[in-house]
Amino acid sequence: MSARSSIFRLEWKRMLRDRAMPLLLLIFTLVAAYAAIAGDLWAQKRAQAVEQIVAEADETMALRRANFAAIIAKGEQPGFGLIYATALPFRAGLPNAPLAALSAGQAETYPPAASISPFADPHAIFDRHSAGLENPAVLGAGRFDLAFVITFLLPLLLIAATYDFWSRDVENGSARLQLSQPVKPERLIWARAAMRGAMLLVPTTLIATTLLLFVNPRDPVGLALFALVVFAYGSFWVVLNAAINLFARTSITAALAAGTAWLTIVMLIPATANAVSDLVAPAPSMKAHSNTVRAVGLEVRAANADAAKAAAADEGDRAYPASLWHSRREIQQRDARLAPLYRAHVETASRHRTLADAARFVSPAVVVQDALDRIAGTDASRALAFQEQARAFAGTTRALAFEWMDRERLMTLADYDGDRLPRFAFAEPPHGAAQALNVIALGLFTLLAFAMAARRLRRGAASLL
Amino acid sequence: MERALLRVIARQQWRLLVRDRRLMILGLALLLALLTAGIGGAAMHATAKAERAAAMSEEARVWEMQGAANPHGAAHFGRDVYKPVSPLAVLDPGLLPELGTALRLEAHAQNPARDRAIDGGSAIDRFGGLTPAAMLQLLAPLLIILAGFATFSGDSARTILRQELSSGVSPALLMAGRLAGLAGAMLLPLAALALLAAMALLLTGSGAAAIGPLLWMMSGYALYLWAFAALTLAASAAFGSARTALVLLLAFWALAVLLVPRIAPAIAEAAAPTLSGPALEAAVTKEVREGPSGHDPQDARLARLREDTMRRYGVSKVEDLPVDFGGISLFHGEALSTAIYRRYSAELYDGFDRQAAVQRRFALLSPLQALRPLSAGLAQSDQHAHRRFLEQADAYRYALVQKLNRDIIHNRKDPANPYLTDVGAITRDQQFIPRAVPLGETLRRHRGELMLLALWAIAASLLALAASRRLRKLAV
User: Fold this and answer.
1) pLDDT above 70 covers what percent of chain A?
2) d(CA B9, CA A165)
3) DSSP code of B137?
4) If we measure between CA atoms, which residue out of A362, A156, A162 comes closest to residue A246?
């Protein structure tokens, strides 16, 4: 029997005798199961809300169609909103990704849908949906989802399982005996740490992945990535605890150091980085921006006041009234004036977001949160991709309305019944590069902890007592 | 004699804490973090205050910019109002990041507040911010546990205990002295924070009226920290092994400050569900369209209003009315939609209140569930203060829109042509001045939480005294 397998067997027996291990696994299973169910309910509720918003356009069109048909039946000609392409209602909704139940992420801080009409300002299409009516207390506390369990609680369980794996042996004297055996100290320490960590980390990874599989089995790649991320994050904590154990003389000191490490890595560093990024690159002032946009709108309106009066008085004989042709010219002028303002606003917001995004690399906890959000499709970049696509779709609807105006084409009953009007479909953005960076970062954090421990181990067996 | 002895024991506890360099470093780190968070918060607060002032003045200019405009068009253009931030929100921003700070007031609609700090976030935002309240709510209890878990347990503590008990001191007095020492050490940074905050409030002219809420807030934190100090000493006295005491205390800390505050809102949301944003909007739209009874369509209501108006003015044709019927229709439509919106809004916020009541029950498991609402309530950064702001803003919105509608009723003479008037001049006397929740009302509203905190402090102290009976056994 090799020395390594002897160490594994010894650690295995010790773990089997440790009554805390089954308890920790039970706690994790219960907490993770609750989180998976809560996450699934949240995801369902969100999907329903988005569906309801998207259905608004269809309901409006159904009402208009009934009205249209009733007017035709009376032998009259429908008018206004029933026939003008400029009055068409459209909705764009951000659908849930398959594993949305995993993490609420940033989903509640971005609009989930857009209300679009051809003449609407493409930057104002999210306004109606930018603030949901979720209880702010729930938002403030944060959702109890699997991502929370993995990011915040899994490290605590791993600390509870491994915080004294070596320091306790130093305390009770058995470390001296172990080091006197013909086994290299490095091999002894790492084999024991790996065994102890794996005894909790492997089952917890499997349990969490299985729970997620039950919630939604449609994304095997996402599930595999989830398992990899959980394992990588857990490995970091196991290695860090091993390193702490090599420095601590007593198990109490090891517990204090591990607790402090958790507090620093999971709470203090992210909170500080968050505050610093807010101060260094603040988000743009929405209040000032909103006032500027309104002022520009009024200036354009004032500049066109005479033309508006003339258009209102013009009874013309074209399919679309002069007032709509006037509005068309006015919104083009307004959008041209607003374009640089929006560009500047988006750039400032992007600077703020880029810094906050880069700040995730200050702590493995933030890296893992980001990775889980991306797997769940509740990350900021997916929400921003939706905004970009919805704006492009708004452009399509405007082009359609302009084309119909140019062709003097009005809505017909066939347009209401057919499938001729465009519908929004979300295209998933790629996130492979960001996820690769996250996994590499987790690996680097683990290497850092490993290097700390290795440096200590190089001092020889005496330094471990 | 006993009082003098108590002082000696408390002083000794202080000395032990000060000599423990590890704890000194942690304590100083907490104080530094508190100060950093306070200064950072104050800087953000000053920026937000300046931004609000600038936005208010710009918004007023934009409203006036409309010049001659159609009053109903102006009512749709709307006005923006901005929520004032209480100076105590520097200490506890509570739910402000989630609540929104700007509100668009317009005809026919009651919009939710916009411009939330959480909007457009990144993964790092899920870790919260660095605020003095977070430091006191999460870190200070942990520091107390780390400082006190080995007070009676462990070999070195047992040696000191043996000497103390052999000098004739009763275990209860010893426990009381240690508790005074440990809690005193933790309350010192709290007192320093209160003093600095009070000075800042007075010097910056941010509001002497906030001193009262500040003192009440600090009293809440004192009870909270006292409870943790007493529980820590109780565990230390109850268990011979310092390791067991530490593990149990850390488990309680994780439960009280991490798990319960996350699970309680989710359970409350499930127990007292409220309508989602789209569902609420759809319900209001349906009721406006079909009438409150569901069988009174808009067209029928309009026809009835036309008949009633002509009868009141004794005319048989709308054209003969001395007032504008379009304006009357808008006036009545606004009254109806406002009543519907207010009913749904009240139901929504009553639902949130029911959820808060469910959450409060979890205060029996975690004192943080009592402290958080109390602290945010006193800082005016809670849901209730927000609701009050929204209600005041809606009263202003209604008055503004109806003033514009009344102008149409009385001054629009030619329905065939667009009616334009100086809307800025018409509405110049309409001012929005939000009023904060009075302290008395806040205290009445949160007396339950205050009592729960006091209960935690008393129960934990009694537990510590009960555990002190084991001290003689520990010393053997």
Assistant:
1) 98
2) 37
3) I
4) A162
pLDDT band for position B381 (50/70/90)?
Answer: very high
* Amino acid occupying residue B258: L
Between CA B247 and CA B225 the distance in angstroms is 19
Which pLDDT tens digit goes with each residue over B67-103? 888 899 999 999 999 999 888 998 999 999 899 899 9
Residue A306 CB burial class (10 angstroms; 0-12, 13-18, ≥19)? exposed
CB A147 within 8 Å of CB A105: yes
Residues B402-421, mean pLDDT to the nearest whole number: 85
- A53 CB neighbours in chain B (<8 A) are 278
Burial of A75: CB neighbours in 10 Å, binned 0-12, 13-18, 19+? exposed
The interface pTM score, or ipTM, of the predicted complex is 0.84
**R_g over Cα of chain A:** 30
Using a CB-CB distance cutoff of 8 angstroms, which residues of chain A are in contact with residue B128? 267, 270-271, 274
Asked if residues A192 and A161 have their Cβ atoms less than 8 Å apart, the reply is: no
pLDDT (0 to 100) of residue B459: 97
Residues constituting chain B? 476
Question: Would you state the pLDDT for residue A99?
Answer: 95
Q: Compute, in degrees rounded to 10, the torsion defined by CA atoms A12, A17, A18, A21.
A: 70
List beta partners, residue B104: B80
Q: Give dist(CA B111, CA B103) in Å, integer.
A: 7
- List, for residues A250-280, the tens digit of each pLDDT value: 777 888 888 889 988 998 899 889 888 888 8
A316 or A137, which is more confident: A137
Q: Which positions 27-56 of A are in contact with B (Cβ < 8 Å)?
A: 31, 34, 38, 41, 45, 48-49, 52-53, 56
Torsion of CA A108, A112, A115, A121, to 10 degrees: 70
What whole-number distance in Å separates Cα of residue B54 and Cα of residue A348?
A: 19
Q: Is A249 exposed, middle or buried (0-12, 13-18, 19+ CB in 10 A)?
A: exposed
Residues making up chain A, counted from first to last: 465
**Do residues B84 and B434 touch, judged by C-beta distance below 8 A?**
yes
**pLDDT value of residue B180:** 86
Residues of B in contact with A373 (CB under 8 A): 123
Q: Which pTM value belongs to this model?
A: 0.88
| Residue A156 tokens, joined | 């605590």
**What are the C-alpha distances in Å from A396 to residues A116, A422, B465?**
11, 8, 74
Query: What residues contact A435, with CB distance under 8 A and at least 6 apart?
Result: A225, A371, A374, A375
CB of B265 within 8 A of CB of B356? no
Q: How far is CA B320 from CA B253, B301, B311, B438, in A?
A: 76, 21, 12, 52
Q: Of B246, B233, B306, B256, which Cα lies nearest the Cα of A253?
A: B246
Question: In 3D, which of B442, B415, B440, B239 has the Cα closest to residue B319?
Answer: B415
A141 contacts chain B (CB < 8 A): yes
